[in-house]
Description:
Elements: H1 2-10, H2 13-37, H3 42-56, E1 67-68, H4 74-81, E2 97-99, E3 102-103, H5 104-125, H6 128-131, H7 137-150, E4 154-155, H8 163-167, H9 170-173, H10 175-198, H11 215-224, H12 227-250
Parallel strand pairs: 1-4
Antiparallel strand pairs: 2-3
Helix pairs in contact: 1-5, 5-7, 7-12, 10-11, 10-12
Amino acid sequence: LLLGIVLLRKFNWRESVAAISWTVIVVFVALLPFTLATSPSLPIDVMLHNFNVQETGGNVNSLTTVSQDSYSLWPLVTYFHLGATGVQRMFTPSSDLLIGSLSYQRVSQVRTAVVLLALAGILAIRKRATEGPGAYLPYITLGIVSFLMLMTGILATHFLLALPFILLCRRWLGNTAYFYAVAIWTVTTLIPMYGDMGSVLSAQDYPLLAESRSAITRAVVDLYSSDRFITVGVVANLCAMIWIAVLTLRSTVKPVTVTAA
């Protein structure tokens, strides 16, 4: 959504239509050898199969959790609201009621929609947000970070999607905020990814990495499920999101001026 608005601001409709048309043709020709070797309907078949698996597997609301091992906002909410501890803070069903008749999932959807629509409005009406070279990057980064922190059911691996955009924002964040966001986001993505993986590794299949045989894996799993570390990780991520929001919305990049030597 946000990148789409940026592209519409930077290019007129004629350029957009031409680009889309050529992209469809080029992608079709590039994928033609693969589709002929397999099946033209393969992408649809895969998606339909996944849908059927989820449907017949009873993927009801109670199986959808507030967080699937990621340190988003919700493990902190379940800690204070329900008194949940350990990994249960992340695997609380998102269909549980949070405020009155509103569930965790509904509240997260409303909050996420408000933030993304606000950013979309800024990109649509604020000329300087898309005028300078890469000036839109902080807004896109803030949108991705906010989505990951506010939406329920997010995996730790999804947090990787924000890291490249954070790395591209040093020019707008400054050294302190930049290195803080990069370091925190890296740690709070790696630990739950490794911790969740390490807790299910079999000693028979992975003798060097299994929790029962590896001190490193055991330490990471303990850290991943520690109440104190979860709380610190979530708060640190929230601070990174707020810091990025403040620096992004407070000012935009000044036009680059070239002076004669």
